[in-house]
């Protein structure tokens, strides 16, 4: 079975092929009749151990638009609450013969572990601070549609890089497609080894945003911080929050992105999130299309013809 566990396993050609497929899914999703039969008869299970608005709902809609039967496993009311382990839960669902399992979990490597155990395709919908591959793909599709290409653009990823699987997947993907990637944050919000990840490192927005084509803001993940690590919100916004003044440093008309959920007034001002340069709603729309493309690529038996074409 084929899986999507991280961007790292994809070649630049694989990424472009998925984005091309997703373009077709955008067109279909904009029709009044959205339902296809590509995955008719297939069963998709969404298994989300962490909260989600965008990812879970877009995977559900993506599966339904492709004609699959979609089941959302409600972890909160499941036997996970009685102590059933991740593997036992997955093996139980696996016995019901799904074709694809979408997993979100707080532990890095959870999706890869499941992929070794179950007899179906697995898609990583976010594993700890490791990867969130479909988020990076939808971000790339949003940029490519707005700018025509990704190669040669400069993208600043700003904020809580330390806890961000979105940042990690984006750094890998944007580098693979030939963008220059900057990361901008206080030093305490970078992971160890950031300088070996193919990025330019900045500790101030005034330097980091200068002349960039895309400003990608990250949520300050305060729930994953402890004690002295938690910055004061007011100070954080002052130095690292994206407001009109800081955005002026970027190239004129630079794209403003945020994977969501947003902390308005913490990492981004409301007027910027809702402003003319924001493509945050487009990112959400692209999320459904990219997830359709990924599931189709993993499950559609005709995919090899597509590759050969
Ligand atoms: N961007 C993202 O993963 O959002 P959710 O946590 O709402 O799925």
Automatic annotation (TrEMBL):
Pathway involvement of the protein, from the record: Pyrimidine metabolism; UMP biosynthesis via de novo pathway; (S)-dihydroorotate from bicarbonate: step 2/3
Domain of life: Bacteria
Residues involved in carbamoyl phosphate binding: 54-55, 104, 132, 135, 260-261
Catalytic reaction list: carbamoyl phosphate + L-aspartate = N-carbamoyl-L-aspartate + phosphate + H(+)
GO molecular function: amino acid binding; aspartate carbamoyltransferase activity
Keyword Transferase: yes
Chain positions recorded as L-aspartate binding sites: 82, 165, 219
Biological processes, Gene Ontology terms: 'de novo' pyrimidine nucleobase biosynthetic process; 'de novo' UMP biosynthetic process; amino acid metabolic process
InterPro entries documented for this protein: Asp/Orn_carbamoyltranf_P-bd, Asp/Orn_carbamoylTrfase, Asp/Orn_carbamoylTrfase_sf, Asp_carbamoyltransf, Asp_carbamoyltransf_Asp/Orn-bd
Family: Belongs to the aspartate/ornithine carbamoyltransferase superfamily. ATCase family.
Protein role: Reversibly catalyzes the transfer of the carbamoyl group from carbamoyl phosphate (CP) to the N(epsilon) atom of ornithine (ORN) to produce L-citrulline.
Protein name as it appears in the record: Aspartate carbamoyltransferase
Source organism of this protein record: Aquibium oceanicum
Taxonomic path: Bacteria, Pseudomonadati, Pseudomonadota, Alphaproteobacteria, Hyphomicrobiales
Gene: pyrB
């Amino acid at each position: 079975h084929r899986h999507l566990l991280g961007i790292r396993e994809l070649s630049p050609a694989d990424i472009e092929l998925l984005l091309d497929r997703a373009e077709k899914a955008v067109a279909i999703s904009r029709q009044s009749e959205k339902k296809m039969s590509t995955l008719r008869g297939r069963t998709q299970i969404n298994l989300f151990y962490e909260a989600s608005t965008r990812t879970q709902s877009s995977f559900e809609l993506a599966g339904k638009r492709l004609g699959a039967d979609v089941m959302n496993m409600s972890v909160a009311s499941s036997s996970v609450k009685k102590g059933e382990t991740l593997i036992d839960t997955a093996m139980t669902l696996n016995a019901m013969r799904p074709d694809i399992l979408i997993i979100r979990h707080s532990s890095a490597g959870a999706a890869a572990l499941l992929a070794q155990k179950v007899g179906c395709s697995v898609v990583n919908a976010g594993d700890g601070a490791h990867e969130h591959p479909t988020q990076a793909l939808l971000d790339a599709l949003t940029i490519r549609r707005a700018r025509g290409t990704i190669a040669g653009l400069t993208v600043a990823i700003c904020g809580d890089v330390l806890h961000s699987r979105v940042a990690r997947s984006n750094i890998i993907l944007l580098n693979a497609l030939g963008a220059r990637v900057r990361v901008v944050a206080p030093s305490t919000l970078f992971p160890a080894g950031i300088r070996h990840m193919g990025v330019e490192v900045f500790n101030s927005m005034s330097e980091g945003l200068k002349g960039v084509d895309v400003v990608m803001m990250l949520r300050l993940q305060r729930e994953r911080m402890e004690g002295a690590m938690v910055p004061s919100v007011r100070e954080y916004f002052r130095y690292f929050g994206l407001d009109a003044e800081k955005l002026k440093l970027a190239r004129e008309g630079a794209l403003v992105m945020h994977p969501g959920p947003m902390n308005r007034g913490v990492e981004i001002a409301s007027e910027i999130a809702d402003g003319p340069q924001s493509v945050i709603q487009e990112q959400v729309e692209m999320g459904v299309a990219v997830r359709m493309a990924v599931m189709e690529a993993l499950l559609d038996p005709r995919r090899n013809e597509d590759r050969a074409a």
